[in-house]
Amino acid sequence: LGSKNYKPRASFHLGQWQSAALLGFKTRYFTTSHTPHAVEKSVIERFFKENIDSYLENISFRFRNYKQFTFISLSNHLQLKSGNRNIAKPDVVYLQPFNRGKNYIDKKLKVCEQKENIRYLCVQSLDLCDKKEQDKVLDWMGSLIGID
User: What span, in angstroms and rounded, lies between the C-alpha atoms of 98 and 2?
Assistant: First the structure.
């Protein structure tokens, strides 16, 4: 810390913050989850037509960069600025099973089965888990859609 060469690391939350800052939000921003989101196409099209430089800058990076904003967060903040306050509670369970406790996966899958409002499961870093853990998650997901 304190180094002149320090650059923040690109992240999900920093991209959301950049979206909010682009629209003039100064001290707070609306965070979203890793789920599908509705987008009003005409609002986004209008914004990018009026702010082509922001669009071109955002897509200019070959890899994710801390200076980039996220599209979904931009859309959400445009809606907030227009007065839309229809905000639904998250309906997602995050499953990050690598290097977790013995019953972690079972507990998360049970939440998915027991809570009616859960529509999405975001699985991260399953590739880092051992084959037994991978199979547990993949077999459970397969059973949901009829693949055995």
Answer: 32
